[in-house]
């Protein structure tokens, strides 16, 4: 790009303005310096690039959509979930930002070494528990420690969330989340030194009239071995590929459970209506096929196999001996 060149008249005008004192040269230099200088806190070094944070946000946007559907089914209420922020902070700041008591689940991320933490706002926790136990999802009183029954109930919710997290992270990294323990005091959970940087993903969740935050905290040293896989390009490429694979597997699994009618045709004959009306129990209808002739196996409206009739363990059965040619399959009679 060619730089702009001042003409002689423009240079003279600029010198006149500076000489007259209408413009302070030091103020111009200071403003220019302030614009080009960016502050940096060495106590909080940036560990994750913007592209990596963007990929992490897209992963958890997918997770939030799945969590919306799953929680709505569990609590039988209107649930909304969205990513509020994706940031990198010191672990000490994350701990000090939480209320006490709270609900924290300590997680293991196999095959990565180290632990992560998922924290859920107490108001949200008690609303979920109330809904799951047949209530209206209301919050009563101040936050308190969970009882044994309440801990068991909310642990099931955490387990379901981890399944959805695994599915969302699988588009980039194959990670298995395992629930280890639950704590109410954030200062008792030390997954890393307080000055270490952590990845903090915050979700805003609302169940009916109750709104709260769900936070996922992962130390940087846990994510470091897979940092090269965290990019928006890899996420987009993996999402497209996995989407086709997931759809194929989903359709295959769905079709595998569909029930279809199967009929065996031992033969056929033609009877008059008068003969049909005269049929009684024990009468014999003579067919146009011989005893050794193969029987036709009709699936739905088409003949798909030929077989040999017989019995197995006292039950009538047929042995498939040949797959019928699609081109020679009989059409459904009109």
UniProtKB/TrEMBL annotation:
Positions of the Flagellar motor switch protein FliN-like C-terminal domain: 255-324
CDD domains, sorted: FliM
Compartments, as annotated in UniProt: Bacterial flagellum basal body; Cell membrane
Predominant cellular place of this UniProt entry's protein: other
Chain coiled-coil ranges: none
Keywords: Bacterial flagellum, Cell membrane, Cell projection, Chemotaxis, Cilium, Flagellar rotation, Flagellum, Membrane
Membrane-topology annotation of the record: Peripheral membrane protein
InterPro entries: CheC-like_sf, Flag_FliM, FliN-like_C, SpoA-like_sf
Keyword Cell membrane in annotation: yes
PANTHER family according to UniProt: FLAGELLAR MOTOR SWITCH PROTEIN FLIM (PTHR30034), YOP PROTEINS TRANSLOCATION PROTEIN Q (PTHR30034:SF6)
Similarity section: Belongs to the FliM family.
Name the record gives this protein: Flagellar motor switch protein FliM
Organism from which the protein derives: Dethiosulfovibrio marinus
């Amino acid at each position: 790009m060619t730089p702009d060149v001042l003409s002689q008249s423009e240079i003279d005008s600029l010198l006149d303005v500076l000489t007259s004192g209408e413009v302070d040269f030091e103020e111009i230099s200071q403003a220019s310096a302030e614009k080009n200088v960016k502050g940096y806190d060495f106590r909080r070094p940036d560990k994750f690039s913007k592209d990596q944070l963007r990929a992490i946000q897209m992963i958890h946007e997918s997770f939030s959509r799945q969590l919306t559907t799953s929680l709505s089914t569990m609590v039988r209420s209107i649930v909304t979930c969205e990513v509020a922020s994706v940031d990198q902070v010191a672990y000490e700041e994350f701990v000090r930002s939480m209320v006490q008591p709270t609900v924290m689940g300590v997680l293991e991320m196999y095959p990565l070494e180290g632990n992560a933490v998922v924290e859920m706002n107490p108001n949200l926790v008690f609303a979920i528990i109330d809904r799951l136990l047949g209530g209206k999802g209301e919050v009563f009183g101040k936050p308190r420690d969970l009882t044994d029954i309440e801990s068991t109930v909310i642990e099931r919710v955490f387990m379901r969330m981890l399944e959805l997290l695994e599915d969302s992270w699988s588009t980039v990294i194959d990670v298995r989340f395992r629930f280890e323990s639950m704590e109410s005091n954030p200062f008792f959970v030390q997954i890393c030194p307080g000055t270490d940087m952590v990845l903090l993903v915050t979700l805003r969740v609302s169940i009916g009239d109750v709104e709260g935050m769900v936070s996922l905290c992962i130390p940087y040293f846990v994510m470091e071995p897979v940092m090269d896989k965290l990019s928006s390009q890899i996420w987009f490429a993996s999402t497209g590929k996995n989407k086709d694979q997931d759809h194929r597997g989903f359709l295959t699994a769905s079709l595998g459970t569909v029930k279809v009618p199967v009929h065996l045709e031992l033969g056929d004959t033609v009877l008059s209506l008068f003969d049909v009306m005269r049929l009684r129990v024990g009468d014999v209808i003579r067919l146009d096929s011989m005893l050794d002739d193969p029987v036709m196996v009709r699936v739905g409206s088409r003949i798909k196999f030929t077989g040999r009739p017989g019995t197995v363990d006292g039950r009538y059965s047929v042995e498939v001996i040949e797959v019928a040619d699609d081109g020679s399959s009989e059409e459904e009679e009109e």
